[in-house]
Amino acid sequence: MAGMELPDQRGYFGEFGGRYVPEVLMGALEELSRAYETAAADPAFWAEFERLCRDYIGRPTPLYPAQKLSAQLGGARILLKREDLAHTGAHKINNALGQGLLALHMGKKRVVAETGAGQHGVATAAVCAKLGLKAIVYMGEEDMRRQSLNVFRMRLLGAEVRPVSAGSRTLKEAITEAIRDWVTNVEDTHYLLGSCVGPHPYPRMVRDFQAIVGKESRDQMLAAYGRLPDYIIACVGGGSNAIGIFHPFVDDPQVQLIGVEAAGKGLDTGQHSASLARGRVGVLHGTKSYLLQDEQGQISLTHSIAAGLDYPGVGPEHCYYRETGRASYVAVTDREALDGFQLLCATEGIIPALEPAHAIYHAAQLAPQLSPEQFILINLSGRGDKDINTVAEALREGL
Ligand SMILES: *Cc1c(COP(=O)(O)O)cnc(C)c1O
Fold first, then answer.
1. 42-59 in b/e burial notation, b at 16+ Cβ within 10 A?
2. Nearest to residue 350, comparing CAs of 60, 74, 81, 93?
3. Cα distance between residue 331 and residue 365, in whole Å
4. Staple 237 to which of 148, 186, 309, 390, CB 3.0 to 4.6 Å?
5. Prediction pTM value
6. Taking a C-beta distance cutoff of 8 angstroms, is the pair 179, 285 a contact?
7. Residue in 381, 383, 386, 388 to alter for ligand 1 test, most ligand atoms within 8 A of Cβ
């Protein structure tokens, strides 16, 4: 089956995805699926989404030719899709807006969300303020420490931020708590999941909202250069910014799709978040995908310098593209991501988030091997203001 038509009725991308949840959630997921099917078939829903994408988010974001970076590296021409310029500073707002509108359509008054880097929490808080929804955001205590500025932003935007102290006190535990809240309050509550993970219909729905990034890129490429890019490179945490830019190109075999996972301190150190590189198939948070787990199936502790990549699973659609060879996946370490980060700052005057800094590093390795007629498109998924303290600390420690 061609990638454009997936997932199937039951939410599978090949063997990945599905709906592995307790009975109490089945009804809520069915209701959500039906509401989404109705909305997705309604041109008025997309017209409103597109209007707010333009007026509230500031879309379309530019397709920016990174001429100095390209010249310094030699080889391919590098283009950046500037999601860092989207309202609240990352691609996360595209999905938050789509699901916020859907929650309104479903008559829900209360929204729960999880957040890792804080970007999804900020996007959700902003959208809920705008749409008049009550927002409750679960966040691991470790992430609250690393991303204190975003905690403050969420509170300013009217969200209640609830600290999660279980386990590694990061994204995985925050998702578990958000699901627990949803189960308890499902009548009036929508769970606004922030990446293309979780049970069906989330991976598909999040992808559809993020696909605006790929659709714009496609139009912008054709308008400016009359052709499609040779490579598209995006970082992969749960995988939503990557699937969003990949998806409209899935049926164009000449476009190579490369996802970049976090190799953390190194793939052999056990301190990384590279689920596709080092995971095994299992079930987490309601979906079947590649997971970082031990022999007993216990989920491993993960690490990345980029809080947004620090998750032991990955979206099922990426697992499927890896399996079928439609996309390939590489891993970049903390140290290398810092190089990518500094490279973009120095050449283009753009401070990237640490997440897409992984993609920048990989593109910088690839570009010199290509010709000046070739194009690499990078999804610059967010801006780096939130990461300045982390970078300062890492550089001070001589990483
Ligand atoms: C959250 C985040 C990511 C990782 O999430 P995906 O779902 O993999 O896109 C990447 N970049 C930025 C800027 C983020 O905030």
1. eeebbebbeebbeebbeb
2. 81
3. 12
4. 309
5. 0.97
6. yes
7. 381
End-to-end CA distance of the chain: 45
Q: 114 an active-site residue?
A: yes
The β-bridge partners of 72 are none
The protein residue with its alpha carbon nearest to ligand 1, atom 1, reads: 308
| Confidence (pLDDT) at 3 | 55
- Is 373 labeled as catalytic in the residue annotation? no
Report the pLDDT value the prediction gives residue 167, as an integer from 0 to 100.
Answer: 86
How far is the C-alpha of 220 from the C-alpha of 333, rounded, in Å?
31
Report the interhelical angle of 388-396 vs 334-348 (nearest 10°): 110
Q: Virtual CA dihedral for 215, 372, 72, 59, nearest 10 degrees?
A: -10
The answer to whether the beta carbons of residues 379 and 242 sit under 8 Å apart is yes
Question: What span, in angstroms and rounded, lies between the C-alpha atoms of 110 and 104?
Answer: 10
**Cβ-proximal residues to 84 (8 Å cutoff; 6+ apart), any chain:** 90, 350, 352, 353, 356, 380, 381, 382, 383, 384
Residue 115: CB atoms within 10 A of its CB come to 32
236 CB less than 6 Å from ligand 1?
Answer: yes
Q: Which residues of the chain have pLDDT under 70?
A: 1-4
CA–CA dist 165, 174 (Å, integer): 9
Q: Please answer whether residues 87 and 180 qualify as being in contact, where contact means their C-beta atoms are separated by less than 8 angstroms.
A: no
Whose C-alpha lies nearest to ligand 1, atom 15? 119
Report the alpha-carbon distance of residue 302 to residue 170 in Å, rounded: 9
Would you state the structure tokens that stand for residue 329, as one six-digit string?
């996946």
Which sign, positive or negative, has the C-alpha torsion 380, 311, 139, 37?
Answer: positive
The catalytic position among 81, 92, 288, 386 is: 92
Quick check: is 336 catalytic?
A: no
Q: What is the pLDDT of residue 31?
A: 95
Which tokens go with 387? Answer: 């990461």
d(C-alpha 394, C-alpha 396), whole Å: 5
Strand order in the sheet with 63-65: 63-65, 77-82, 375-380, 231-235, 256-264, 327-333
Spatial neighbors of 26 by CB under 8 A, at least 6 apart, are: 19
Measured between alpha carbons, how far is 332 from 16 in angstroms, rounded to an integer? Answer: 25
